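User: Fold this, then the next.

Assistant: Folding the first:
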Amino acid sequence: MPFRLLLFVFVIFALLSCAKKGEVYKGGKLSSRCPRVLYTRVYYCPTLYAYTNKFQHLSKVKVVNPKTKRSITIAVRYNPRVKGLCLPKKYRKILGPPFYGKVYLLRCGENGARSCPRVIRGYASWYGKEFHGRKTASGIRFNAYGLYAAHRYLPFGTLLEVKNLKNGKKVVVEVVDRGPFVKGRHLDLSYGAAKKLGMIRDGVIPFEARVLRCGY
Protein backbone atom coordinates (compact mmCIF):
# COMPACT_ATOMS: atom_id res chain seq x y z
CA MET A 1 0.00 0.00 0.00
CA PRO A 2 1.48 3.41 -0.97
CA PHE A 3 2.83 5.53 1.89
CA ARG A 4 0.41 8.41 1.19
CA LEU A 5 -2.60 6.10 1.40
CA LEU A 6 -1.36 4.64 4.68
CA LEU A 7 -0.88 8.15 6.06
CA PHE A 8 -4.40 9.15 4.99
CA VAL A 9 -5.94 6.10 6.71
CA PHE A 10 -3.97 6.84 9.90
CA VAL A 11 -5.13 10.49 10.00
CA ILE A 12 -8.81 9.53 9.53
CA PHE A 13 -8.54 6.89 12.27
CA ALA A 14 -6.93 9.38 14.64
CA LEU A 15 -9.63 11.98 14.04
CA LEU A 16 -12.42 9.50 14.70
CA SER A 17 -10.68 8.19 17.83
CA CYS A 18 -10.38 11.70 19.24
CA ALA A 19 -13.98 12.70 18.57
CA LYS A 20 -15.72 14.04 21.66
CA LYS A 21 -18.38 11.94 23.36
CA GLY A 22 -21.68 12.29 21.57
CA GLU A 23 -20.18 13.05 18.16
CA VAL A 24 -20.70 10.61 15.30
CA TYR A 25 -19.21 11.40 11.90
CA LYS A 26 -21.92 10.04 9.62
CA GLY A 27 -23.49 11.29 6.42
CA GLY A 28 -21.60 14.57 6.52
CA LYS A 29 -23.25 15.58 9.79
CA LEU A 30 -22.58 15.38 13.52
CA SER A 31 -25.11 13.51 15.65
CA SER A 32 -26.34 14.74 19.02
CA ARG A 33 -26.33 12.42 22.00
CA CYS A 34 -29.75 10.81 21.80
CA PRO A 35 -29.64 7.09 22.64
CA ARG A 36 -32.98 5.45 21.80
CA VAL A 37 -32.91 3.16 24.85
CA LEU A 38 -30.57 2.92 27.82
CA TYR A 39 -30.31 1.41 31.29
CA THR A 40 -29.38 3.84 34.03
CA ARG A 41 -29.69 4.63 37.71
CA VAL A 42 -33.03 6.25 38.61
CA TYR A 43 -33.41 8.08 41.93
CA TYR A 44 -35.22 11.07 43.44
CA CYS A 45 -34.43 14.72 44.14
CA PRO A 46 -36.25 17.53 45.98
CA THR A 47 -36.84 19.41 42.71
CA LEU A 48 -39.75 20.37 40.46
CA TYR A 49 -38.14 18.92 37.34
CA ALA A 50 -36.34 15.75 36.24
CA TYR A 51 -32.59 16.07 35.57
CA THR A 52 -30.15 13.84 33.72
CA ASN A 53 -26.70 13.75 32.13
CA LYS A 54 -27.79 11.12 29.58
CA PHE A 55 -30.04 13.04 27.16
CA GLN A 56 -30.34 16.40 25.45
CA HIS A 57 -32.02 19.21 27.38
CA LEU A 58 -35.85 18.97 27.30
CA SER A 59 -35.90 15.48 25.82
CA LYS A 60 -39.07 13.48 26.47
CA VAL A 61 -38.53 9.99 27.91
CA LYS A 62 -40.43 6.99 29.22
CA VAL A 63 -38.98 5.60 32.47
CA VAL A 64 -39.72 1.98 33.35
CA ASN A 65 -39.05 0.16 36.61
CA PRO A 66 -38.25 -3.41 35.41
CA LYS A 67 -39.23 -4.92 38.78
CA THR A 68 -42.71 -3.43 39.09
CA LYS A 69 -43.29 -2.79 35.35
CA ARG A 70 -44.63 0.64 36.29
CA SER A 71 -43.65 3.62 34.15
CA ILE A 72 -43.96 7.38 33.69
CA THR A 73 -43.42 9.73 30.75
CA ILE A 74 -41.60 12.94 31.53
CA ALA A 75 -39.48 15.74 30.01
CA VAL A 76 -35.92 15.89 31.37
CA ARG A 77 -33.49 18.75 31.80
CA TYR A 78 -29.79 18.35 31.16
CA ASN A 79 -27.46 18.65 34.17
CA PRO A 80 -23.87 17.33 33.91
CA ARG A 81 -23.65 16.97 37.72
CA VAL A 82 -26.47 14.42 37.79
CA LYS A 83 -25.36 10.82 37.31
CA GLY A 84 -28.22 8.92 35.72
CA LEU A 85 -31.78 10.20 36.06
CA CYS A 86 -33.07 12.19 39.02
CA LEU A 87 -36.86 12.46 39.28
CA PRO A 88 -39.00 14.73 41.50
CA LYS A 89 -39.82 12.96 44.79
CA LYS A 90 -43.55 12.76 44.01
CA TYR A 91 -42.86 9.99 41.47
CA ARG A 92 -41.58 7.65 44.17
CA LYS A 93 -45.21 6.77 44.95
CA ILE A 94 -45.58 5.47 41.40
CA LEU A 95 -42.19 3.91 40.65
CA GLY A 96 -41.06 2.87 44.13
CA PRO A 97 -37.58 3.11 45.74
CA PRO A 98 -34.51 4.08 43.63
CA PHE A 99 -33.77 1.46 40.98
CA TYR A 100 -31.74 0.65 37.89
CA GLY A 101 -34.26 1.29 35.15
CA LYS A 102 -34.89 1.24 31.43
CA VAL A 103 -35.36 4.62 29.74
CA TYR A 104 -36.85 5.03 26.26
CA LEU A 105 -36.27 8.22 24.28
CA LEU A 106 -39.54 9.58 22.85
CA ARG A 107 -38.22 12.97 21.66
CA CYS A 108 -34.65 14.19 21.32
CA GLY A 109 -34.30 17.62 22.93
CA GLU A 110 -37.06 20.20 22.64
CA ASN A 111 -37.48 19.90 18.87
CA GLY A 112 -36.39 16.38 17.95
CA ALA A 113 -33.16 17.53 16.27
CA ARG A 114 -30.72 14.61 16.23
CA SER A 115 -27.97 16.05 14.07
CA CYS A 116 -26.05 19.21 13.20
CA PRO A 117 -24.57 20.32 9.89
CA ARG A 118 -20.79 20.55 9.92
CA VAL A 119 -20.91 24.19 8.82
CA ILE A 120 -23.53 26.94 8.95
CA ARG A 121 -23.38 30.30 7.18
CA GLY A 122 -25.46 33.45 7.23
CA TYR A 123 -25.75 36.72 9.12
CA ALA A 124 -25.16 37.13 12.86
CA SER A 125 -26.35 39.83 15.25
CA TRP A 126 -25.69 40.23 18.97
CA TYR A 127 -27.63 40.86 22.16
CA GLY A 128 -26.28 42.03 25.47
CA LYS A 129 -26.69 43.78 28.77
CA GLU A 130 -30.48 44.19 28.71
CA PHE A 131 -30.77 40.38 28.85
CA HIS A 132 -27.97 39.84 31.39
CA GLY A 133 -29.08 37.56 34.23
CA ARG A 134 -32.29 36.43 32.55
CA LYS A 135 -33.03 32.75 32.05
CA THR A 136 -32.30 31.40 28.59
CA ALA A 137 -34.36 28.77 26.77
CA SER A 138 -31.85 26.16 27.97
CA GLY A 139 -32.54 27.08 31.59
CA ILE A 140 -29.21 28.75 32.43
CA ARG A 141 -28.81 32.42 33.34
CA PHE A 142 -27.60 34.52 30.42
CA ASN A 143 -24.18 36.10 30.91
CA ALA A 144 -23.81 38.91 28.40
CA TYR A 145 -20.04 38.86 28.91
CA GLY A 146 -19.73 35.09 28.31
CA LEU A 147 -19.27 33.30 25.01
CA TYR A 148 -22.80 32.21 24.11
CA ALA A 149 -25.14 32.05 21.12
CA ALA A 150 -28.80 31.67 20.24
CA HIS A 151 -29.88 29.53 17.29
CA ARG A 152 -33.35 28.51 16.12
CA TYR A 153 -32.95 24.73 16.16
CA LEU A 154 -29.41 23.49 16.98
CA PRO A 155 -29.40 21.34 20.15
CA PHE A 156 -28.47 23.19 23.33
CA GLY A 157 -24.84 22.68 24.26
CA THR A 158 -23.67 22.73 20.63
CA LEU A 159 -20.23 24.34 20.29
CA LEU A 160 -19.59 26.59 17.29
CA GLU A 161 -16.38 28.14 16.05
CA VAL A 162 -17.73 31.35 14.54
CA LYS A 163 -15.72 33.36 12.00
CA ASN A 164 -16.45 36.99 11.15
CA LEU A 165 -16.13 37.03 7.35
CA LYS A 166 -15.47 40.79 7.38
CA ASN A 167 -12.26 40.66 9.43
CA GLY A 168 -11.38 36.97 9.85
CA LYS A 169 -11.66 37.00 13.66
CA LYS A 170 -12.92 33.81 15.36
CA VAL A 171 -14.54 32.80 18.64
CA VAL A 172 -15.95 29.56 20.09
CA VAL A 173 -19.46 29.85 21.54
CA GLU A 174 -22.03 27.54 23.11
CA VAL A 175 -25.67 27.47 21.98
CA VAL A 176 -27.82 28.15 25.07
CA ASP A 177 -30.79 30.08 23.72
CA ARG A 178 -33.30 30.30 20.87
CA GLY A 179 -33.31 32.98 18.16
CA PRO A 180 -32.79 35.22 16.35
CA PHE A 181 -36.36 35.67 15.16
CA VAL A 182 -35.60 38.45 12.69
CA LYS A 183 -35.83 37.58 9.00
CA GLY A 184 -32.43 37.25 7.35
CA ARG A 185 -30.49 36.54 10.57
CA HIS A 186 -29.22 33.12 11.52
CA LEU A 187 -27.25 33.49 14.77
CA ASP A 188 -27.47 35.77 17.81
CA LEU A 189 -24.26 36.19 19.80
CA SER A 190 -23.64 37.42 23.34
CA TYR A 191 -21.94 40.78 23.82
CA GLY A 192 -18.76 39.00 24.96
CA ALA A 193 -18.60 36.90 21.79
CA ALA A 194 -19.46 39.86 19.56
CA LYS A 195 -16.66 41.89 21.11
CA LYS A 196 -14.11 39.17 20.34
CA LEU A 197 -15.34 39.12 16.75
CA GLY A 198 -15.03 42.89 16.46
CA MET A 199 -18.66 43.31 15.41
CA ILE A 200 -20.07 45.61 18.09
CA ARG A 201 -20.25 48.66 15.81
CA ASP A 202 -21.41 46.72 12.76
CA GLY A 203 -24.27 45.10 14.65
CA VAL A 204 -24.81 42.48 11.94
CA ILE A 205 -22.02 40.63 10.10
CA PRO A 206 -21.72 37.76 7.60
CA PHE A 207 -20.37 34.67 9.35
CA GLU A 208 -19.32 31.08 8.88
CA ALA A 209 -19.51 28.67 11.83
CA ARG A 210 -17.93 25.23 12.14
CA VAL A 211 -19.73 22.80 14.45
CA LEU A 212 -17.25 21.45 17.01
CA ARG A 213 -19.78 19.52 19.08
CA CYS A 214 -23.43 18.71 18.41
CA GLY A 215 -25.36 19.14 21.66
CA TYR A 216 -24.05 18.26 25.12
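Now the next one, as you asked:
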Amino acid sequence: MTNYISKSINYAEYCNLLETLMANGKTTGHDQSESYINYAKLNLARMRRLNKTLILTEDIKNELQKITKKYIWLVITEGWCGDAAQNIPVFYYIEKENPNIELRLILRDENLELMDRYLTNGGRSIPKLICLEKDSTASTGYIEKFVWGPRPVAVQNLTQQLLQQNVTKDEKSLAIQHWYNNDKTLTLQNEFLQLIKTLN
Protein backbone atom coordinates (compact mmCIF):
# COMPACT_ATOMS: atom_id res chain seq x y z
CA MET A 1 0.00 0.00 0.00
CA THR A 2 2.95 2.33 0.59
CA ASN A 3 3.58 2.82 -3.13
CA TYR A 4 -0.02 3.91 -3.69
CA ILE A 5 0.13 6.34 -0.80
CA SER A 6 3.33 7.82 -2.22
CA LYS A 7 1.55 8.37 -5.56
CA SER A 8 -1.52 9.93 -3.96
CA ILE A 9 -2.30 13.65 -3.62
CA ASN A 10 -4.03 15.76 -0.98
CA TYR A 11 -7.43 17.39 -1.40
CA ALA A 12 -6.11 20.81 -2.44
CA GLU A 13 -3.94 19.17 -5.10
CA TYR A 14 -6.90 17.10 -6.28
CA CYS A 15 -9.14 20.17 -6.63
CA ASN A 16 -6.35 22.02 -8.45
CA LEU A 17 -5.89 19.08 -10.82
CA LEU A 18 -9.60 19.05 -11.68
CA GLU A 19 -9.67 22.82 -12.18
CA THR A 20 -6.58 22.76 -14.42
CA LEU A 21 -7.89 19.91 -16.55
CA MET A 22 -11.32 21.53 -16.91
CA ALA A 23 -9.70 24.81 -17.99
CA ASN A 24 -8.26 22.79 -20.87
CA GLY A 25 -11.52 20.99 -21.63
CA LYS A 26 -10.39 17.74 -20.05
CA THR A 27 -11.04 15.50 -17.06
CA THR A 28 -9.19 12.68 -15.33
CA GLY A 29 -9.21 9.14 -16.67
CA HIS A 30 -9.05 7.53 -20.09
CA ASP A 31 -12.48 8.60 -21.34
CA GLN A 32 -12.30 12.16 -22.68
CA SER A 33 -15.65 12.05 -24.48
CA GLU A 34 -18.00 15.02 -24.46
CA SER A 35 -20.35 13.30 -22.02
CA TYR A 36 -17.57 12.65 -19.52
CA ILE A 37 -16.30 16.22 -19.81
CA ASN A 38 -19.84 17.43 -19.12
CA TYR A 39 -20.10 15.14 -16.07
CA ALA A 40 -16.79 16.49 -14.82
CA LYS A 41 -17.92 20.09 -15.30
CA LEU A 42 -21.12 19.50 -13.30
CA ASN A 43 -19.24 17.64 -10.58
CA LEU A 44 -16.64 20.37 -10.25
CA ALA A 45 -19.45 22.88 -9.68
CA ARG A 46 -20.94 20.58 -7.01
CA MET A 47 -17.59 20.28 -5.25
CA ARG A 48 -17.08 24.04 -5.30
CA ARG A 49 -20.51 24.51 -3.73
CA LEU A 50 -19.94 21.88 -1.04
CA ASN A 51 -16.49 23.28 -0.26
CA LYS A 52 -18.21 26.54 0.70
CA THR A 53 -21.46 25.37 2.29
CA LEU A 54 -20.84 22.01 3.97
CA ILE A 55 -21.43 21.81 7.72
CA LEU A 56 -20.50 18.82 9.87
CA THR A 57 -22.87 17.76 12.64
CA GLU A 58 -21.84 18.29 16.24
CA ASP A 59 -22.05 14.53 16.82
CA ILE A 60 -19.40 13.74 14.24
CA LYS A 61 -17.21 16.65 15.36
CA ASN A 62 -17.30 15.41 18.95
CA GLU A 63 -16.47 11.84 17.95
CA LEU A 64 -13.59 13.01 15.78
CA GLN A 65 -11.94 14.72 18.74
CA LYS A 66 -11.48 11.30 20.38
CA ILE A 67 -9.19 9.97 17.64
CA THR A 68 -5.59 9.80 18.85
CA LYS A 69 -4.03 7.26 16.49
CA LYS A 70 -2.74 8.19 13.03
CA TYR A 71 -4.82 7.23 9.99
CA ILE A 72 -4.59 7.65 6.25
CA TRP A 73 -7.86 7.76 4.34
CA LEU A 74 -6.89 6.69 0.83
CA VAL A 75 -9.67 7.41 -1.68
CA ILE A 76 -9.87 5.93 -5.17
CA THR A 77 -11.61 8.47 -7.38
CA GLU A 78 -11.97 10.24 -10.74
CA GLY A 79 -13.05 13.78 -11.59
CA TRP A 80 -16.04 12.73 -13.71
CA CYS A 81 -17.62 10.65 -10.94
CA GLY A 82 -20.81 12.12 -9.49
CA ASP A 83 -20.68 10.14 -6.24
CA ALA A 84 -17.08 11.23 -5.69
CA ALA A 85 -18.03 14.89 -6.10
CA GLN A 86 -20.83 14.55 -3.55
CA ASN A 87 -18.89 12.59 -0.93
CA ILE A 88 -15.20 13.55 -1.03
CA PRO A 89 -15.77 17.11 0.26
CA VAL A 90 -17.25 15.52 3.40
CA PHE A 91 -14.06 13.48 3.84
CA TYR A 92 -12.08 16.71 3.55
CA TYR A 93 -14.16 18.45 6.20
CA ILE A 94 -13.66 15.44 8.46
CA GLU A 95 -9.90 15.59 7.88
CA LYS A 96 -9.88 19.27 8.90
CA GLU A 97 -11.35 18.38 12.30
CA ASN A 98 -8.49 16.13 13.40
CA PRO A 99 -4.83 16.24 12.32
CA ASN A 100 -4.57 12.49 12.97
CA ILE A 101 -6.62 11.86 9.81
CA GLU A 102 -4.80 12.42 6.53
CA LEU A 103 -6.92 12.37 3.36
CA ARG A 104 -5.14 11.17 0.24
CA LEU A 105 -6.61 10.70 -3.23
CA ILE A 106 -5.54 8.43 -6.06
CA LEU A 107 -6.96 8.08 -9.57
CA ARG A 108 -8.71 4.84 -10.43
CA ASP A 109 -7.78 4.50 -14.10
CA GLU A 110 -4.08 4.90 -13.36
CA ASN A 111 -4.23 2.31 -10.56
CA LEU A 112 -6.56 -0.45 -11.67
CA GLU A 113 -4.59 -3.08 -9.77
CA LEU A 114 -5.51 -1.26 -6.55
CA MET A 115 -9.09 -0.69 -7.70
CA ASP A 116 -9.51 -4.39 -8.43
CA ARG A 117 -8.90 -5.19 -4.74
CA TYR A 118 -11.98 -3.17 -3.82
CA LEU A 119 -14.68 -4.04 -6.35
CA THR A 120 -18.40 -3.54 -5.70
CA ASN A 121 -20.49 -6.43 -7.02
CA GLY A 122 -17.65 -7.12 -9.44
CA GLY A 123 -17.54 -3.54 -10.74
CA ARG A 124 -14.97 -0.74 -10.42
CA SER A 125 -17.37 1.65 -8.67
CA ILE A 126 -15.92 4.77 -7.07
CA PRO A 127 -15.20 6.46 -4.78
CA LYS A 128 -13.72 3.87 -2.44
CA LEU A 129 -12.22 5.02 0.85
CA ILE A 130 -9.69 2.73 2.53
CA CYS A 131 -8.95 3.64 6.14
CA LEU A 132 -5.39 2.67 7.06
CA GLU A 133 -3.90 2.84 10.54
CA LYS A 134 -0.21 3.58 10.66
CA ASP A 135 1.46 0.64 12.43
CA SER A 136 5.20 0.06 12.29
CA THR A 137 4.77 -3.54 13.48
CA ALA A 138 2.64 -4.51 10.45
CA SER A 139 4.46 -5.96 7.44
CA THR A 140 3.10 -3.23 5.19
CA GLY A 141 3.35 -0.48 7.79
CA TYR A 142 -0.45 -0.13 7.81
CA ILE A 143 -3.48 -2.00 9.11
CA GLU A 144 -6.72 -1.75 7.13
CA LYS A 145 -9.46 -0.64 9.53
CA PHE A 146 -12.45 -0.24 7.22
CA VAL A 147 -13.45 0.29 3.60
CA TRP A 148 -16.32 2.55 2.55
CA GLY A 149 -17.93 3.14 -0.80
CA PRO A 150 -18.88 3.78 -3.44
CA ARG A 151 -21.86 5.70 -2.01
CA PRO A 152 -24.10 5.85 1.07
CA VAL A 153 -26.17 2.68 1.53
CA ALA A 154 -29.43 4.49 0.76
CA VAL A 155 -28.04 5.73 -2.57
CA GLN A 156 -26.64 2.29 -3.36
CA ASN A 157 -30.12 0.81 -2.80
CA LEU A 158 -31.69 3.55 -4.95
CA THR A 159 -29.14 2.86 -7.70
CA GLN A 160 -30.00 -0.85 -7.70
CA GLN A 161 -33.73 -0.07 -7.87
CA LEU A 162 -33.22 2.28 -10.80
CA LEU A 163 -31.13 -0.29 -12.66
CA GLN A 164 -33.90 -2.86 -12.21
CA GLN A 165 -36.40 -0.36 -13.62
CA ASN A 166 -34.27 0.04 -16.76
CA VAL A 167 -34.31 3.84 -16.59
CA THR A 168 -31.95 5.79 -18.84
CA LYS A 169 -28.54 6.88 -17.62
CA ASP A 170 -29.70 10.52 -17.50
CA GLU A 171 -32.82 9.59 -15.52
CA LYS A 172 -30.71 7.63 -13.06
CA SER A 173 -28.27 10.51 -12.66
CA LEU A 174 -31.09 12.98 -12.04
CA ALA A 175 -32.74 10.77 -9.41
CA ILE A 176 -29.46 10.27 -7.57
CA GLN A 177 -28.64 13.97 -7.74
CA HIS A 178 -32.10 14.77 -6.34
CA TRP A 179 -31.41 12.41 -3.42
CA TYR A 180 -28.06 14.04 -2.65
CA ASN A 181 -29.57 17.54 -2.83
CA ASN A 182 -32.31 16.66 -0.36
CA ASP A 183 -30.05 14.74 2.00
CA LYS A 184 -27.42 17.52 2.39
CA THR A 185 -24.68 14.96 3.32
CA LEU A 186 -26.43 13.92 6.56
CA THR A 187 -26.72 10.22 5.67
CA LEU A 188 -23.04 10.08 4.77
CA GLN A 189 -22.09 11.86 7.98
CA ASN A 190 -24.14 9.38 10.02
CA GLU A 191 -22.46 6.44 8.29
CA PHE A 192 -19.05 7.90 9.05
CA LEU A 193 -20.03 8.68 12.63
CA GLN A 194 -20.48 4.94 13.15
CA LEU A 195 -17.23 4.11 11.34
CA ILE A 196 -15.29 6.70 13.34
CA LYS A 197 -16.58 5.16 16.57
CA THR A 198 -14.80 1.93 15.60
CA LEU A 199 -11.49 3.85 15.56
CA ASN A 200 -11.83 5.16 19.13
